[in-house]
Amino acid sequence: MEELHKTYGKMAALAGVTLEIADGEFVAMMGPSGSGKSTLLHCAAGLDTPSSGRVFLGGVEVTALDEPGLAALRRERIGFVFQAYNLLQALDVADNITLPLRLAGRPVDEAKLMAIAARVGLGSRLGHRPAELSGGQQQRVALARALITDPEVVFADEPTGALDTRTAREVLTLLRELVDEAGQTLVMVTHDPVAASYAHRVVFLADGHLAGEALRPTPEQVAERMTQLGAS
């Protein structure tokens, strides 16, 4: 991301953010409400267009793509995990996971489906509907759906915000395992210092600007930094 600016009317959500995320890195974005973290995530993922600046994914300039190009990029090279799960209630777990493949007209590899379902702990739940699952299980379905296309990067927007503490830690442990064992690149927006501590690096934002970072963060370090940002 190079010199990203995003304005809404007279409000500057992003004010010249430059940030590089390495392949296989787990980065958490944090900041006070209105700091620009979700806007930055959406611009990085091709869900929103910056007012100026450039975004690259690998060798592709995301900000130079037209809408069909962006749609193809999001479908084939990017995965999304959101707080609200966004599952289709009429579909069972298997069909929810494989939905991106079907929308892209790609065949479903049953062995791959089983492998991903097993990795996220849903191997015995493929025939269940979302209403039959717990919140943590539904978030695992959303994660498996994000992974089924072998994305280069997964973007997660408050993925544990709707979960209880124990379930949230199970999901966060799974996310870290995907990074450490499978080399997945992961970018997560969170408000929770404990969630952020699972990342390799925490990037802090304030008033649309980068406001520092923490490597190998602890919850206490993150909470202290957030307190400082909130007071500034």
TrEMBL record:
Keyword Transport (UniProt): yes
| Pfam families in alphabetical order | ABC_tran
Cross-referenced SUPFAM superfamilies: P-loop containing nucleoside triphosphate hydrolases
Q: Which is one Gene Ontology cellular component term of this protein?
A: plasma membrane
Keyword terms:
ATP-binding, Nucleotide-binding, Transport
Stored SMART domains: AAA
Q: Which Gene3D superfamilies match?
A: P-loop containing nucleotide triphosphate hydrolases (3.40.50.300)
Task: List residues of the ABC transporter domain.
Answer: 1-232
Signal peptide bounds: none
GO molecular function terms here? ATP binding; ATP hydrolysis activity; transmembrane transporter activity
- Please identify the protein, giving its name as recorded: Putative ABC transport system ATP-binding protein
